Amino acid sequence: MDKFRIVGGRPLEGRVQISGAKNSALPCLAAALLSSGTVTFHNLPYVRDIITMRRLLEDLGCGVLMPEQATLKVTASNIEFFEAPYELVKSMRASVLALGPLLARFGEARVSLPGGCAIGQRPVDLHLRALEVLGAVISLENGTIVARAGRLKGANVFFPKITVTGTENLMMAASLAEGVTVLDNAAREPEIEDLAELLNKMGARVTGAGTSTIRIEGVEKLGGAGHTIIPDRIETGTFLAAAALTGGELELCNCRPDHLGSVIAHMRQAGVHIEQPNQFTLNVHANGGLKALDIVTQEYPGFPTDMQAQYMALMTRAEGTSVITENIFENRFMHASELARMGARIHIQGKQAIVEGGGRMTGAKVQASDLRASASLVVAGLAADGETIVDRVYHIDRGYEKIEEKLRSVGGQIERFRE
Ligand code: UD1
């Protein structure tokens, strides 16, 4: 298994290119299943989850070409299977995004039920209930969700809880339904808007994406399209945290500062200097002087749960005590005990982590437990005194493109090795 060896204590300095957003690329790739035309994607991040989604599309019968890195051409004209098997779903929950498109286009879809995962239960009941409102008949057969329908029928769907991939699944399914679907209490993440933009390019009629009410007028058929994936806001935020924690200075290019409002506002308040010279660039620097500041994770536009772990690493350095409240997922504090191995003082009380900041971190052997937890350990290792070994970096490979190369290019001492 791959590990990272990090020698910390050196400020990061230089320029970093932000990659395309994994969480936007995944639903957009699934949307290619809605059409027999070719959909061309640009700015895809080359990360494990995208490779898994590509494999899923190929297993289903899609033609996939990769004319250059970051570009894929997907043609779903010869779909032969309608099933996302357990091997893929267990390594990537987002495989469930195949459910809506397959069901809407072929009247049948099977997706292995995702099991519990490291960051809590994460059920898909809301996806299923909402598809039932559109007329799907859903059963569970030997651990597999089996969904069937004639042509789906547009309807009013109210999500009792906001769900990102649930909203995306329904947007895709409703695009080919008969009549109008209105999704209420929909997720408002930038990735939802990106998917809507792609669907509309394919011929769908989606309005309101980015607000909590999305209206989809179903059409009979969708066609091919070309689409450039938005920049990854969580990768951007992770580099903001890395610069701030190491007392460095970074220029982050090809990003979307407008997708990071809450993160930037909180970091500024905590004493990080962040400037936005233009629409697609952020400059960040910090020279100590970090102040403790509480955060509460919330759905967009609130503080993202996917930045909670990296922010916790930042708060270990800040003067004072901060309270981090995790509202989206249960059991998403596994990085806290690993950060504690590096000298952090963190106490968990239910869904709150109390971080006593101000101490210096020292290198240690730590273990990544999920994607964002591993990012927080890398960021902490870059700032800690001495050597940190991060085990199980396959978690970080799921969602961060060339993380060690990018960090090395700005002075981070990090190398990958295998034992
Ligand atoms: C997406 C993101 C993930 C991010 C999360 C929250 C992708 C591929 N992943 O995950 O990185 O951390 O949003 O911003 O975009 N829930 C249910 N029933 C359901 C669906 C969700 O109870 O059917 C609960 C979940 O357990 C969780 C909450 O709703 O507590 C939000 O989950 P959701 O927004 O669905 O997360 P994902 O779409 O899986």
What are the key terms here?
419 residues; four-stranded mixed beta sheet; binds uridine-diphosphate-N-acetylglucosamine; alpha/beta; 14 helices; single chain; 24 strands
Q: How confident overall, as mean pLDDT?
A: 95
User: Widest sheet: strand order?
Assistant: 22-23-1-24
Number of strands: 24
Radius of gyration, Cα only, in angstroms? Answer: 21 Å
Determine the fraction of residues in helical runs and give it as a percent range. 25-40%
Largest sheet: 4 strands, mixed
Number of helices, where a helix is a run of at least 4 consecutive DSSP H or I residues: 14
Oligomer: single chain
Gross morphology: elongated
The distinct ligands, each listed once, are: uridine-diphosphate-N-acetylglucosamine
Low-confidence stretches: none
Q: What class do helices, strands and sheet pairing give?
A: alpha/beta
- Tell me the span between the first and last alpha carbons: 7 Å
* Beta fraction: 25-35%
